[in-house]
Amino acid sequence: MSIETFYRDSWVEIRLDAIKENMKQLQKTLDDKTGIYAVVKANAYGHGDVQVAQAALESGAYGLAVSLLDEALILREAGVEAPILVMGWVRPEDAPVAVKYNITLTAFQTEWVESVKNQSYEGALSLHLKWDSGMGRIGVRTKEELHELLLSCQDEKIQIDGIFTHFATADELDLSYFHKQQERFEILLEEFNRHWNEDVEIHTGNSAASMRFPEKMHHVVRFGISMYGLYPSTDVKALEPIPLQPAFSLHSKLIHVKKLPKGESISYGATYTTSSEEWIGTVPLGYADGWIRKLQGMEVLVEGKRMPIVGRICMDQFMVRLDQPYPVGTKVTLIGKQMDQEITIDEIADYLDTINYEIPCMISYRVPRIYVKDKNIIEVDNSLSVED
Ligand code: PMH
Q1: Was domain 248-343 assigned CATH 2.40.37.10?
Q2: Which molecular-function annotations from GO does this UniProt entry contain (predicted)?
């Protein structure tokens, strides 16, 4: 844990207690024997991979799931010893790196396994086989492909430790496609069990499936978006299968406040013109921080009140219309609570016509992350830091 200094007035706050609470809520509904892979790919959906991984493991997560081998190596480098599964495709020539760092890879192509076997490494590569039961992304689809793959895996350089699939519609009210995927998975599972005697981990559920159908989960679930306190869809939010607390908030400060007369324009393209005398504040955050230009017109919170973003959002700054003058240094909340007002990630996602997953992911490396536990700042992570 380190407290790094940063020299700007914008920051993300991550409440690690919220992550722990969300883990606890899911654990309550799961069978005692069902473990949790905390999905921390993409820098833990923008929340900070190592910090979230540690909080999840402290809360009893069984392992961690990422998309890239590079992401897994960052966790190992930070001293994480728990099982790590890379769910995406890794080049076969990089398998020796996975073996060296005890990282499990995902396999679904016979040629890939053959190519891995030609690499030089000691011991066995741990694999989870991926079955495409209807996501149409990666995975084995037929019994024939499965047979071929299993044949190729009968080798001392390969160790099958798990099998999994991924649902495309577990977050929707209409569950017909979800059931179809489950059926297809069960058929391949029967086939697998006929040809393979060793015990393996079986996992199918993402946040939506694990919260809605905890009794249908096998050995592990892969808990992503809801560990961060967000529901996977508005449909699931309405069902509220478990209570969740968002962990992510985004803040800045007013760095300049001025009174403009009627008829003055703001920012590139002069797209906004004051319609009377107006107080305008400048916020030091822009599209290079992930606060993209499409957020023009969205609101921010100042002293618990909503103020609109006026004019185009620049690379590093944007302007807001204030209801009155506020001192330089006044806190501005872009995501999160101030008094009884709240701007949620879901609201931002709605405004941008996208899903909540995308919002924390898009807040860039330029914005330092502050980690809070029991109301205390326990760590500051600043990617721009030049300090060791
Ligand atoms: N398992 C796999 C294979 C995934 O790709 C994801 C999320 C999860 C589990 C976790 O899902 P959850 O966040 O809904 O709990 N993957 C993605 C994705 O590829 N695009 O958006 C989410």
Answers
A1: yes
A2: alanine racemase activity; pyridoxal phosphate binding
